[in-house]
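Supplementary Methods. Inverse-folding protocol.

Structures were first reduced to a discrete structure-token string of length 283. This string, shown here, constituted the complete conditioning input.
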């Protein structure tokens, strides 16, 4: 018997006995409980209990007659039915859980995220749950999110991306603004995302890790940077003020980029209009 098929059915909610009984029935046009028990060397009571459960799950059909024979619902039909039920139940769970969480929404407005992989997982979740519009500003490669972005575009979600870097768009049909610089000109990695004007995520690596005095010795006289995963910090929020701030920042970046194009590449942020803030001074 194909153990992979049995394991797959178990992962879909079948017991081991139910899965083995179903797999034993698939090659047969029709079969009764006694024959199944004999073929599997199972007790008849356990086989008949499994057949009863399989009937309730809609995985098999009972053939009218005196011999209590059964036939399977074909695998492709069964799996399609399971997928449809799973999707339906997932939507019900999502709606009911959203109602539960809304009562305590004020305590879930901010989520601090540590580590690059955790940040990527949260970005993917936000993209998957987007319905109308995604705004992304990034100096990071979009490769980890290509599948999710592609699916969002197929759903009709508008995806707009800004970057100072000439990002690889991997053939995605997105609106892109920027691309003046190569990756080598930007050591700090930064990523922001706004989903449906409702939630946002911002993250960055610790740019101080690039400074010589923060580098670590690997024991062989050479220097290396700490793991990029550990150096990343992020924040996810549904706070209306924070979402608006991130959106404004995104729009101003695009506006400034378009103004530079309109003025034939002339730099618009000159020293005479700077205000001498700590950020401008690099402190």
């Amino acid at each position: 018997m194909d153990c992979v098929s049995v394991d797959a059915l178990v992962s879909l909610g079948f017991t081991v006995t139910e899965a083995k009984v179903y797999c034993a029935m698939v090659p047969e046009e029709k079969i009764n409980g006694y024959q199944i028990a004999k073929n599997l060397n199972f007790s008849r009571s356990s086989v008949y209990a499994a057949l009863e459960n399989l009937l309730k799950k809609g995985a098999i059909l009972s053939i009218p007659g005196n011999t209590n024979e059964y036939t399977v619902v074909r695998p492709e039909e069964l799996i399609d039915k399971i997928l449809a039920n799973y999707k339906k139940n997932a939507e019900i769970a999502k709606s009911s859980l959203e109602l539960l969480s809304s009562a305590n929404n004020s305590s879930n407005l901010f989520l601090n995220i540590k580590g690059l992989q955790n940040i990527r997982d949260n970005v993917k979740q936000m993209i998957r749950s987007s319905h109308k519009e995604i705004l992304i500003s990034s100096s990071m490669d979009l490769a980890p999110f290509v599948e999710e972005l592609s699916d969002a575009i197929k759903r009709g979600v508008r995806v707009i991306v800004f970057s100072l870097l000439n990002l690889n768009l991997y053939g995605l049909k997105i609106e892109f603004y920027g691309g003046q610089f190569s990756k080598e000109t930007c050591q700090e990695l930064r990523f922001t995302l706004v989903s449906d004007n409702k939630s946002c995520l911002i993250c960055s690596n610790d740019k101080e890790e690039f400074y010589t005095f923060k580098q670590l010795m690997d024991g062989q006289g050479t220097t290396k940077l700490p793991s990029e995963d550990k150096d990343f910090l992020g924040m996810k929020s549904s706070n209306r003020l924070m979402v608006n701030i991130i959106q404004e920042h995104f729009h101003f970046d695009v506006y400034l980029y378009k103004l530079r194009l309109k003025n034939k590449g002339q730099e618009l942020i000159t020293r005479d209009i700077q205000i001498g803030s700590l950020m401008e001074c690099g402190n």
